[in-house]
Structures are given as structure tokens and as C-alpha cells.
Specification:
The protein is of the alpha+beta class. The protein folds into three domains: about 70 residues, Dna Ligase, domain 1; about 130 residues, 2-Layer Sandwich (D-amino Acid Aminotransferase, Chain A, domain 1), CATH 3.30.470; about 150 residues, 3-Layer(aba) Sandwich (Rossmann fold), CATH 3.40.50.261. The chain is about 35% helix and about 25% strand. It is built from 13 helices and 19 strands. The strands form five sheets. Strands 1, 8, 9, 10, 11, 12 and 13 form a seven-stranded antiparallel beta sheet that branches. Strands 2-7-3-4 form a four-stranded antiparallel beta sheet, with helices on one face. A four-stranded parallel beta sheet has the order 15-17-18-19, with helices on both faces. Bound molecules: guanosine-5'-diphosphate and manganese (II) ion.
């Protein structure tokens, strides 16, 4: 889950990282009021969960409250890389002497957190990494030892930070790492960390990504999720305890187990189709879970066929078949359906489905057969 800039910076501030004064506005009038209250020049910034807002015209400086209002009016409602701007952050604008990058992320290959700094702040760090990787100074962090001061000195030295800023830089780096670790983040980044007009360090932009699997122990962070930025079906699925991700294809996939779901998606592609979603209904697929999942799959107008791929391990196939039948009693499906049930009690499961004589439903014995049938059915529809 990604946090908005204003949410990330508020979190950083709790750890003692200096951020500009500012507030979120939902309307141009509000932006005017905030700018007036802050006094002096402000910067009006689109709050969307994507980068490169500056280049897209989503970050604008304003000298007066009237100008802030005009900028907010232009930015609110803007479309930045398919993200609609619903709010803007109005921050006190600072003169910038220098822009620095400072970020902590998870280096999967090294199996450790990685802290990075660069004198090339402000721009896209992936771009810096591509054209001049040597301009990013990196230190891997041993999670048991934590971030050591000598590592931060290495970063400060590497980016040629003026000596008088080393002390505050140490504090900021330590705070950022603590914030990252204690939030179960996969990314905590300040870009840019500026040297302002008075020669002080200030976190002007912030970004955090939180590991979804750890959100259960951070109710305060889970609350910050912006559901307006995700497909509605995903919000509903999460509430029902299902892992669902909407995709662009036409074959709705209802599968138990994440690995099997991935394989099923691949198989639809192998036969020339494309999955409409990733969906893992989990073990012990009960009728109500299947019904909820079916409703979510069918809420996507692109879906032309539904493919059930269920492996009965602990879950018995006859139970799943009953679940499917009960779900079909609640949810009307006019689309073709292909069901593959294998594993414990598969004969009983298939017999139940055959006996029910459901229109537009076919059964299949292998995954290849099921995927091929689903792709054909979707293409005919
Ligand atoms: P991003 O483009 O989405 O990463 O948004 P940023 O918050 O990083 O802003 C982009 C750029 O706008 C920064 O790199 C700065 O150059 C500029 N900017 C942002 N805030 C301020 C500010 O307070 N004062 C000034 N002068 N420029 C700012
Ligand atoms: Mn930025």
C-alpha cells in the first residue's frame, strides 16, 4: 500500500524529520485559506499515488493566496497518469539551494534493507540509477545492528554534503530508517531533501510504501488507505477477505491458492486469452465466499467467461461444488463457465455439478482443457 505525500511526510515528522508547514485542501477556496494562513509563497501539490507530478504540471509555486487558489483550481480534477487529483497539499515554499535524494528500501537480492543517497535529488531516482548509477551511494543495513553512524557518514561524504550539515543529516537518516523499520515499510523516501534558503535540511517530498501483509499490526496506517485510487472491486474483495487484483483480460478466474491462480492466469494466455483478474479465494471455499467472489468477478464488464480452477486438498471438491451451486442460486450468471475440480472427492464434486445441469457450464479434467475451453467460450461470446 502506498501512502500519499502528505501522509508520508506527517509520519516522517513524527520521527523528527523536518518538513515544511502545510495542509491538505479539497477545493480552491480551501487552498486560498491555507495559503493565507501560512503567509508568503506556497507550493500547491497534487496528491496522487504516482511519481513525476512535477513534470505533469501537478506542482506549482504561488506567491499569493489568489494564485494558490488558481493553481489549486487547475490541479484539482487533473489526470496524472490515470490518477485523478482529488486533493492538493499546500506547503510553505522554500527557496532551494540543493536537492538531495535519501531513501530506504528493501533489497530482496541482498535480503537486507538498503539506504541510498544521491546528490542528484529531485528527479526520478530510477532514471539516475539508469544513466549514472555511481551517483547513488548505497549502504546495506544489518537489521540486527541497525543503521550505523559510520554508514551515514559514508553517505554524507559520498554526496559531498557540507560538513555543517552532517549532524542533522545523521538525525534525519536515523529517523528515516526507524520510520521505515517500525512501519514495516518496503520504501521510505525523501526526494528531494533540500538545503533551504537558510542552509537547513528540509524534507520537501515524501513517499512510503507499506507491506500489505504487515498492515494487520498497523491499524493506524491501514486507515490511511486511499480507496478512491483503486478499482472498487478490489476494495470490496479486501473487505471480504479475498485477494483480488483487477486485470485487463476477459476470463474471470476463480481459483484457490495464489500459486494455482498465477498458473491459471498463465494458462489462459497460453491458449490465446487473457485473465480478467487475479483471485485467490483461499482454502475451505465456503458457499458465501464463492458467491462473493463470483459477484466481484461479474462486476467487471470485460469478463466474457468464468474459469473455476479448484484443487481439493484439505478442502473437499464436493464441498466446493456445493459452494458453487449455492453461489449460483444467489448470483445469476449468463456467461459461459468452465469448472475444473480435482483432488479429494473430485468424482462426487463433478457428479453434483453434472446433476445440477447448469446452463452454459462445462466441466474439464485438466487445467489445459479448462483453460482452452474458457478461452474459446470467451472468444465466441
Ligand atoms: P514529484 O515531481 O512528484 O516528485 O514532486 P516533488 O514534490 O518532488 O516536486 C517536484 C519539484 O518541484 C522538486 O524537485 C522541486 O524542484 C520543486 N519543488 C517542490 N517543492 C518546492 C518548494 O517548496 N519550493 C521550491 N522552490 N520548489 C519546490
Ligand atoms: Mn519528488
Amino acid at each position: 500500500m502506498n501512502l500519499h505525500e502528505y501522509q508520508s511526510k506527517a509520519r516522517f515528522a513524527e520521527y523528527g524529520i523536518p518538513i515544511p508547514r502545510g495542509k491538505v485542501a479539497h477545493s480552491p477556496q480551501q487552498a486560498y485559506e491555507i495559503a493565507k494562513e501560512l503567509g508568503g509563497p506556497v507550493v500547491v501539490k497534487a496528491q496522487v499515488l504516482t511519481g513525476g507530478r512535477g513534470k505533469a504540471g501537478g506542482v506549482k509555486l504561488a506567491q499569493t493566496p489568489e494564485e494558490a487558489e488558481r493553481h489549486a483550481d487547475a490541479i484539482l480534477g487533473m489526470d496524472i497518469k490515470d490518477h485523478k487529483v482529488l486533493r492538493v497539499l499546500v506547503d510553505v515554499a522554500s527557496p532551494i539551494q540543493k536537492e538531495i535524494y535519501l531513501g530506504v528500501t528493501n533489497d530482496r537480492a541482498a535480503r537486507r534493507p538498503l539506504i541510498m543517497a544521491s546528490a542528484e535529488g529531485g528527479m526520478d531516482i530510477e532514471e539516475v540509477n539508469r544513466v549514472a548509477p555511481e551517483k547513488i551511494i548505497r549502504e546495506h543495513i544489518d537489521p540486527f545492528l541497525g543503521l550505523r553512524d559510520y554508514q551515514i557518514r559514508n553517505l554524507a561524504y559520498g554526496i559531498e554534503l557540507p560538513r555543517e550539515l552532517w549532524k542533522p543529516f545523521m538525525k534525519i537518516a536515523q529517523a528515516l530508517y526507524r520510520c521505515y523499520a517500525e512501519s514495516d515499510a518496503t520504501l521510505a523516501e525523501i526526494n528531494p531533501l533540500i538545503i533551504d534558503g537558510e542552509g537547513q535540511l528540509l524534507a520537501v517530498d515524501g513517499k512510503m510504501s507499506i507491506d500489505d501483509n504487515a498492515l494487520f499490526r498497523h491499524p493506524d496506517l491501514a486507515e490511511l488507505r486511499d480507496t478512491s485510487a483503486e478499482p472498487e472491486a478490489e476494495t470490496r474483495a479486501r473487505a471480504a477477505g479475498l485477494s483480488y487484483i483487477k486485470l485487463d483480460g476477459t476470463i474471470g478466474c476463480m481459483v484457490n491458492g495464489a500459486g494455482l491462480a498465477m498458473t491459471t492466469m498463465d494458462m489462459t494466455k497460453l491458449f490465446g486469452g487473457a485473465p480478467a483478474n487475479f483471485l485467490d479465494i483461499g482454502g475451505g471455499a465456503k458457499a458465501e465466499t464463492v458467491a462473493m467472489a463470483l459477484r466481484i468477478i461479474l462486476s467487471d464488464p470485460n469478463v466474457k467467461a468464468v474459469l473455476f480452477n479448484i484443487f481439493g486438498g484439505i478442502t473437499r471438491c464436493d464441498e466446493v461444488a456445493r459452494g458453487i451451486l449455492a453461489a449460483l442460486g444467489e448470483v445469476r450468471v449468463d456467461l459461459p463457465m468452465v469448472v475444473r475440480l480435482v483432488g479429494t472427492n473430485e468424482e462426487e464434486g463433478r457428479a453434483l455439478l453434472d446433476a445440477a445441469n447448469i446452463p452454459h457450464m462445462e466441466t474439464a479434467r485438466t487445467l489445459a482443457e479448462a483453460a482452452r475451453k474458457a478461452v474459446e467460450a470467451a472468444q465466441k461470446a
